Amino acid sequence: QQTAPPQALYERPASVFVAGFIGSPGMNILRAELASDDNGLAARINRFRLALPDDIFSRCPTLEAWIGRELLVGIRPEGISLADEHDDAGIPAAVRATESLGHETILHAAAEVTTVAFDAQTPFTAVTETPILSAVLRGHRPLRHGEPLRLSINSGNLHFFAPDGKAIGCPFHP
Fold first, then answer.
1. Average pLDDT across the chain, whole number
2. Which of 34, 54, 108, 167 lies at a C-alpha separation of 20 to 30 Å from 115?
3. pTM for the complete prediction?
4. How sure is the predictor about 61, in pLDDT bands with cuts at 50, 70 and 90?
5. Residue bearing the bigger pLDDT, 4 or 152
6. Chain segment 91-148, per-residue pLDDT in tens
7. What residues contact residue 79 under an 8 Å CB cut-off, 6+ apart?
8. In 3D, which of 149, 171, 1 has the Cα closest to residue 83?
């Protein structure tokens, strides 16, 4: 799949498989469509609009060819945070599991998105049965199973993949 030092694999995975294999929890992979409208460029993730940075084409010129097309968006768990409950841009979700590590909490939440399997034995177009997003939250978060919440995605730290699972070639780092 890819050979490189661990940090390079983490920052610049060549495929969805590598992206999900390196890091714990693995990268969240979502089905999306790249859209351009009066409000700028965005990744449409089901019914949610994730605004993308204005300088995205200068940072990733190959992405322009994907406007109006389906692609896969990769989001590392640390790129997801809790949104204000009244934030309409936040993705509605419900707590499925948490793991408190003292200095951080790992959250697994069912969300209204289409997640994609990244197993080497599974076609990249396979939709997971229960769409779960994983997030790494700072500090201890006493969240209860089933608790509704909203998730916010840091659009400046996304990875883009073609539907076949190969990286489009423009990882972002804050």
1. 84
2. 54
3. 0.86
4. confident
5. 152
6. 889 999 999 998 999 999 998 887 776 655 554 555 556 688 999 999 998 999 999 9
7. 153, 154, 157, 158
8. 149
Backbone angles phi, psi at 88, to 5 degrees: -65, -20
What six digits make up the tokens of 157?
Answer: 């730290």
Nearest to 89 by CA among 52, 124, 137: 52
Tell me, letter by letter, the H, E, C secondary structure of the chain. Answer: CCCCCHHHHHHCCCEHHHHHHCCCCCCEEEEEEEEEECCEEEEEECCEEEECCCCHHHHCHHHHHHECCEEEEEECHHHEEECCCCCCCCEEEEEEEEEECCCEEEEEEEECCCEECCCCCCCCCCECCCCEEEEEEECCCCCCCCCEEEEEECHHHEEEECCCCEECCCCCCC
